[in-house]
Write a structure and sequence with these properties.
It contains eight helices and 14 strands. It is of the alpha/beta class. The protein folds into two domains: about 150 residues, serine acetyltransferase, domain 1, CATH 1.10.3130.10; about 90 residues, UDP N-Acetylglucosamine Acyltransferase, domain 1 (3 Solenoid), CATH 2.160.10.10. A five-stranded parallel sheet has the order 1-4-7-10-13. A five-stranded parallel sheet has the order 3-6-9-12-14. It is globular, with a radius of gyration of 24 Å.
Length: about 300
């Protein structure tokens, strides 16, 4: 009886494969593997933070050999993912192009580490609860999200399809922080707590910027063509100047919106226009009524 039921499920599923398009990749491109992508991101974090993503301590005497071994594994794994990504675009000579991209990517790792050093410093200075850089690297979700985004941004600039977005979504799933690989982010960047932060593709963020949880730097609206389809590309997300702080759950929208340097955006602000440098933007608090509980009228609470 069970075999017959399974047979019917198989039959109906196969019919769905034929009837419902866009969800199958059979006889098509050999797409990048999400599982392999997770392995690559793990290797990248090991290379960026040696000793912090390992199960045993790393001694200085073995660091050179271990780094060479890890970079060789990383190169092999990334080459496969980049070739598969380029096949979607039907790029000519994807193998040759991949080697050039891969070497530029690996060559950029020391520079990314220098940027991450500034991000860790910003977290230490920006959070009174931070005890040490070790605590920040091991436990602050923003460091992992920013590290992967800074790496994915390199591949985004190389115009590699699929892979950069897969990388930042891997970090998003782990940290709750959603940063598009296209976003340009300056040094000393800190996201406190981080849950629910969204940063769009065309955002440009200056140095020494601090965001809190729930902040959205998003698009205001989408232009459409004569057929009613969304026009892709274009500047859609705001610019944030240097030394800006944006407090929790604020939403800033629009490609023409610029937050001037040295500004502070208070909590729960909804903003769709630019503000000059040195601005303070607050959402006026609704009037609260505070009273003794014993003297309060009967209130029915709904949770």
């Amino acid at each position: 009886m069970m075999n017959g039921a399974i047979h019917r499920v198989v039959r109906d599923t196969l019919r769905s494969y034929g009837d419902v398009g866009g969800l199958n990749n059979t006889d098509g491109h050999n797409l990048p593997s999400k599982r392999a992508l997770g392995h690559v991101c793990g290797l990248l974090l090991q290379v960026l933070f040696p000793g912090f993503h390992d199960e045993r301590p790393i001694h200085q005497a073995e660091l050179a050999d271990l780094t060479e071994e890890r970079l060789a594994k990383l190169a092999d794994a990334m080459r496969d993912l980049i070739v598969k990504s380029l096949s979607v675009r039907d790029a000519p000579r994807p193998g040759e192009m991949t080697d050039d991209v891969l070497m530029r990517f690996l060559g950029a790792l020391p520079g990314v580490r220098e940027l991450l050093r500034t991000d860790i410093a910003a977290a230490y200075e920006g959070d009174p609860a931070a005890i040490s850089s070790e605590e920040i690297i091991l436990s602050y979700p923003c460091i992992e999200a920013i590290a992967i985004q800074r790496l994915a941004h390199i591949l985004y600039l190389e115009e590699i399809p699929l892979l950069p977005r897969m990388m930042t979504e891997w970090a998003h799933a782990r940290t709750g922080i959603d940063i598009h690989p296209g976003a340009q982010i300056g040094a000393y960047f800190f996201i406190d707590h981080g849950t629910g932060v969204v940063i769009g593709e065309t955002c440009v963020i200056g140095a020494h910027v601090k965001l809190y949880h729930g902040v959205t730097l998003g698009a205001r609206s989408f232009a459409k063509d004569e057929s009613g389809h969304i026009v892709k590309g274009g500047k859609r997300h705001p610019n944030v100047g240097a030394r800006v702080t944006i407090y929790p759950n604020s939403t800033i929208l629009g490609g023409e919106t610029t937050i001037g340097a040295d500004s502070t955006i208070g909590a729960n602000v909804f903003l769709m226009r630019s503000v000059p440098p040195g601005s303070l933007v607050v959402s006026e608090e609704k009037q609260l009524r505070i009273m003794e509980k014993s003297a309060a009228p009967e209130i029915e609470w709904f949770i």
